[in-house]
Amino acid sequence: MSGTTAPTPESPDFDQSLWAKANFSQEYRDNADHYIQDRHELLRLLKSFYRAFAKKTHGTRVCDLGCGDGVLCQQLLQEDPSIEATLVDGSPQMLSAARTRLVDFPQIHTRQQSFEEWMQSSTDLDPFDFIVSSFAIHHLHLPDKARLFQSISDRLSEGGWFLNIDTVFSDEPGFTDWYYQAWQEWVNERDAKLRLKGAFSTIARKARLNPDNKLSPLEVQLETLRAAGFHKVECHYKNGLFVIYAGQKQG
Ligand SMILES: C[S@@+](CC[C@H](N)C(=O)[O-])C[C@H]1O[C@@H](n2cnc3c(N)ncnc32)[C@H](O)[C@@H]1O
Fold it and tell me: What pTM did the predictor assign?
């Protein structure tokens, strides 16, 4: 099935999001370690999952959607330097930072594309073995997430895996306030340890109010993945809003 369904009228363009602003993406690159809850653990699990399920003998074809400055691919390349990686992001500044970070790895391709453009692009290229994303897909409304999951399925080899590290809502809305609060507490504890002087003391509230963040409930996303042709769909990590889920394209 092709993933070229038309965008919904609510599908905002990348250019209208804060990520299109150079200073916004610079702030994220400078500070993400301070406010992405358990970032180190999330990246450790990504590498472990890669070793256990996605790694081929040589030249695993990886795609990172919303790659930012290439942090995921750097981790994977440290694990397996034979990876051939395609990094996709709407932001030229992010892609430039990714090229700098990954300068030692020649098998890197960067594509400046919005998710919308990526979904419209040809499916005739060699399929990927592993498609990953972190903290990018929550910028899409649920119908657009569904279209993206279908496009991901269309671009994976049979048996290939998709893994998403992201923020989601609880399926029980009653937990949402606490999850934001618990996130802020994590940030505040790190702040105290590193003496950051309260630099991120309102990050959870700001993220909640930011209209670019369109979190959807976890179970709905897992169901949407199954509907797009994935099996072995599972959430492998959950700590409040922060999750890792994955699925395998059915052969
Ligand atoms: C929170 S950052 C995450 C970056 C990186 N994956 C990481 O974990 O550090 C979100 C990234 O998604 C990109 N992005 C957001 N919306 C996008 C869209 N509609 N199309 C393409 N890229 C998008 C942004 O430019 C940004 O690099």
Answer: 0.95
